[in-house]
Amino acid sequence: MLRTRTTISALFVTVGLLHGSARAEDKLYAVTQAPTKVAVGAKSTISVTIDAKNGWHVNGEAPITLSLTAPAGITLPKAKLSRADLAASSLVSARFDVPFEAAEPGAKVIAAEAHFVICQESACKPVREMLSLNVEASVAAPVVKKAKGKVKKS
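Given the sequence above, the corresponding structure tokens read:
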């Protein structure tokens, strides 16, 4: 019985340490995107930004990629973006502007996988981050044209 309790306690400590290290990694970088609204048939972009934190920086020489999988109703011109496709890049951040077009209305999720390397003075760390890029496609409102002409006064 004592051995079982010790094993279970060791398991909880190990799980706690693993969970704690994931929190520490979260502080090294952040990958963000804002939900995007688009009219059906219109071309748009969704920005994905990688920000290094706490003395880390985005490695300017290592490969950086964003692999994309579009759901039904979303068209992507490219399924994989690389360093050459970055819209902005600095020592502490990198941003992809992902072009897409919505063919049907509704909430859509583009699955993405980012690969990049963050570094500090003494070490580098490769990162693989799974993302869900949220898109809301709506039917465009019809354009109402005003009638030209003069109004008769009585």
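Residues 1-24 have pLDDT under 50 and may be disordered. Try to locate this feature in the token string yourself.
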